[in-house]
Amino acid sequence: MNQKRIEAIAGLENALNEIESGEGLSTFVEGHGLQSHRFRFEWSEPLLQISYDLPTGRILSPEEDQKMDDAEAGAAIRLALVLLRAFENGTPQEFEDGTLSVSCDDDGAHYEILAEDGSVIDAEEGWSGLASRLESVFGDLAEDLTIIWP
After folding, report:
1. Rounded CA gap, 142 and 100, in Å?
2. Where exactly are the structural domains of the chain?
């Protein structure tokens, strides 16, 4: 595993620990002010692209909204960890037909698989289709794989 991937995984694991501890997310957080903090994570390599830009730490928002922000960031982080590990040694068989691009922002979650020429092979709003593909990639290991979707 290359150093960049090791550092990204360690940072994501730290961010997940921050959310789960209830202390508030600070890793990969940008922005100033009481309502403008954003969880931003980018990963780009030929076979896998991840782009997250989610609100976090909006202390003037209702508590329920803050919890939903944390839940969505937590799910995104878990997915990024799974993908970084799954693509560690190249493209898993289920994704051999193109580059996987995953994004999550204020407009929701989205994934697409792109051919070498940039055309879209498969795309879907939300992550349920991607979760199904991951289950087929991991096979029997999928039973041990838990991604909690908000």
Report:
1. 19
2. 3-144
Contact 38, 30 (CB under 8 A): yes
31-42 per-position pLDDT tens digit: 988 888 999 999
Detail the DSSP E strand segments found in the chain.
29-30, 38-44, 48-55, 99-105, 108-114, 120-125
pLDDT (tens digit per residue) in 8-50: 999 999 999 999 998 889 999 999 888 889 999 999 998 899 9
Q: HSE of 81 in the Cβ direction (CA atoms, 13 Å)? A: 19
For the whole prediction, is pTM greater than 0.90?
A: no
Count other Cβ atoms within 10 Å, centred on residue 87.
20
Given a contact cutoff of 8 angstroms between Cβ atoms, the answer to whether 52 and 80 are in contact is yes
Q: Could you give the CA distance from residue 11 to residue 109 in angstroms, rounded to a whole number?
A: 21
d(CA 2, CA 88): 9
Please say whether the beta carbons of 117 and 97 come within 8 A. no
Structure tokens of 27?
């890793």
